[in-house]
């Protein structure tokens, strides 16, 4: 058993080392900061790290969670002490639901330079601690970012962290690099462009800007983009982005407005993981937008509701493993949504880009699923984190539910890969219309019970226990 454990860990270590080396070689020309120290320290994902949050009034901090205001704390990261760091609760719906059902296991956001300008953790300015909300497997975000990185999409670094508060165990979290200055330097070099996180104020509004639709030439028509800029936005940058959206809307000369290859790689993974709370879903958000020189890229963010679990929190939840395992790759949303998502729609209208999208999907399946990389990854990571999940005092689920969650997401992904392969080869319809007519070759997903990956009902446990 011990030798098998060492073998699995060695697989993870070797994989992480190769990925880091490839990443460094790929980006070394861009900047000498492309591989900062923090990438091989906190974000070495071959081990579980430790963070002790030291705060005098932790209970008071939790009571003010809804305010999402920063509080001063000391962090001890793998034995290194960082005083006067900023800490706040992260999330909107997740925070609200966690609070509603009587939990206090919030996602957290750390900002090293909030109180001390220029302070960083080996070059890192900001990161999040993800609580694995509605994720009994503890794997949704980790695996998706790993898939994105595998496909060469600029993605946040991640690693697992055992969090303690004033020395007492708090729980297992996923550390996630925030797309801010350190992220931009690491991925794009010293002369990086602009980062945005487009988001709506009210979901019922039109939110054309969040969907990256061209409205007009007035920067005021894109408030949901520009108010969410990560860096100060110049007038020139505003008009540069607007021009890109205009070119995108016209559907011609798309290479002038879009980093097409990067965006197609992004969409291959995004569609694979069936994340309906995203740009390709009704909400149209949960992504980062990068613009440089008038060309845009789409970057990944927020996957706790991926893998077909988004609707589980709705008034009428849809638990349909067959549908989501076989979800169509060419029309991943209804027409009325797709026509308002130009970054996907306009590319798919071009035969050249449509074929490239399929080529990227084929490459993804061959190099991540069909050669065993995915299964080795899941095995090694779960062996590494399981002892921590088992003793996690604030976990949203039991250890047995975690084990079931791991097996469920593993099976979902393997069956999904089988279905996508069938769609690429024309054996399974790859559009909503085609699937409405013929489901005879669908991959059988009856072994998958989607709620086992985590659902809102799991949150009711604290209230039930107290009654």
Report the principal-axis shape.
globular
Helix content: 40-55%
The percent range for strand residues is 5-15%
Q: SSE order in H/E notation?
A: HHEHEEHEEHEEHEHHHHEEHHHHHHHH
Question: How would you describe the overall organization of this protein?
Answer:
By secondary structure, the chain is an alpha+beta fold. The strands form two sheets. It has a seven-stranded mixed β-barrel with strand order 1-2-3-4-5-7-6. Helix 1 crosses helix 15, helix 10 crosses helix 14 and helix 14 crosses helix 16. The longest helix is centred in the first third of the chain and has 26 residues. The N terminus and C terminus are likely disordered.
How would you summarize what this structure contains?
This protein is of the alpha+beta class and 467 residues long.
Core attributes:
alpha+beta; disordered C terminus; globular; 10 strands; 467 residues; disordered N terminus; 3-stranded antiparallel β-sheet; 18 helices; 7-stranded mixed barrel
Task: Describe the protein's topology.
Blueprint: H1 2-27, H2 37-40, E1 49-54, H3 58-63, E2 71-77, E3 80-90, H4 93-100, E4 107-111, E5 126-130, H5 140-150, E6 158-165, E7 168-177, H6 181-188, E8 194-196, H7 223-226, H8 235-250, H9 254-257, H10 260-272, E9 287-292, E10 295-300, H11 321-325, H12 335-338, H13 342-348, H14 351-369, H15 373-390, H16 399-424, H17 432-437, H18 461-466
Parallel strand pairs: 1-6
Antiparallel strand pairs: 1-2, 2-3, 3-4, 4-5, 5-7, 6-7, 8-9, 9-10
């Amino acid at each position: 058993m011990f030798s098998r454990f060492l073998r699995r860990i060695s697989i993870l270590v070797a994989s992480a080392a190769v990925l880091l080396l490839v990443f460094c070689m790929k980006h070394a020309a861009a900047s000498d900061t492309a591989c900062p120290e923090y990438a091989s320290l906190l974000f070495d994902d071959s081990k579980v790290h430790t963070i002790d949050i030291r705060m005098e009034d932790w209970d008071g901090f939790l009571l003010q969670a809804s305010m999402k205001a920063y509080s001063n704390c000391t962090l001890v990261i793998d034995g290194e002490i960082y005083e006067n760091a900023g800490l706040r609760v992260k999330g909107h719906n997740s925070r609200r639901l966690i609070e509603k059902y009587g939990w206090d296991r919030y996602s957290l956001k750390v900002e090293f330079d909030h109180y001390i300008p220029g302070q960083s953790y080996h070059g890192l300015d900001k990161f999040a601690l993800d609580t694995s909300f509605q994720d009994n497997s503890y794997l949704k975000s980790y695996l998706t970012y790993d898939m994105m990185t595998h496909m060469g999409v600029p993605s946040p670094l991640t690693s697992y962290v055992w969090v303690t508060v004033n020395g007492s165990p708090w729980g297992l979290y996923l550390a996630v690099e925030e797309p801010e200055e350190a992220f931009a330097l690491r991925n794009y070099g010293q002369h990086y462009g602009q980062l945005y996180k487009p988001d709506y104020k009210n979901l019922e509004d039109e939110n054309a800007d969040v969907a990256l639709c061209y409205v007009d030439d007035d920067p005021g028509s894109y408030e949901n983009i520009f108010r969410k800029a990560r860096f100060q936005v110049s007038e020139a940058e505003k008009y540069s982005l607007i021009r890109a959206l205009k070119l995108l809307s016209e559907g011609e000369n798309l290479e002038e407005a879009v980093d097409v290859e990067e965006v197609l790689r992004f969409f291959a993974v995004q569609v694979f993981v069936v994340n309906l709370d995203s740009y390709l879903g009704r909400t149209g958000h949960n992504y980062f937008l990068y613009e440089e020189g008038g060309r845009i890229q789409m970057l990944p963010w927020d996957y706790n509701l991926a893998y077909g679990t988004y609707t589980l929190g709705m008034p009428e939840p849809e638990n349909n493993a067959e549908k989501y395992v076989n979800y169509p790759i060419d029309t991943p949303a209804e027409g009325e949504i797709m026509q308002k998502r130009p970054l996907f729609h306009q590319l798919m209208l071009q035969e050249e880009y449509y074929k490239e999208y399929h080529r990227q999907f084929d490459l993804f399946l061959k190099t991540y699923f069909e050669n065993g990389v995915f299964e080795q990854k899941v095995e090694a990571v779960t062996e590494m984190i399981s002892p921590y999940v088992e003793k996690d005092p604030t976990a949203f689920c039991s250890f047995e539910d975690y084990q079931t969650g791991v097996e469920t997401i593993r099976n979902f992904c393997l069956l999904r890969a089988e279905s996508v392969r069938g769609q690429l080869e024309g054996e399974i319809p790859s559009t909503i219309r085609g699937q409405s007519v013929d489901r005879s070759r669908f991959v059988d997903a009856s072994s998958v019970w989607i709620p086992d990956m985590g659902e809102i009902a799991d949150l009711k446990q604290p209230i039930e226990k107290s009654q």
